[in-house]
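Explain this one:

_____
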Amino acid sequence: MGMRLIVKSGLRGWHFQAASLSSVLLCIVLWVRAKTIGEDERGNAERRALFVGLWPPMFWLIGDTIDRRTAFHPSGVSPMRSAKWTRRRSANWARRLRSQTS
């Protein structure tokens, strides 16, 4: 549901990957700034920098998920998968792999 809304809103994987790299830069800037302020406020500023440092993996994984989803389904919306559909797909992949190796 969440990925469907993100894709429908027009956001793409590279938007989130750019946000990931930007948050790395923001974390570095906040960390350097924390070293320049007074001792009594330094702890709070360092915690803020560490908190922002947790964002890049999240943004990168969201962008990667969107890229994978839109590569498999251009609309970004995957069909409902029943157990029968999954077994049939797995069998097709196995046949395809066997034909490539031989």
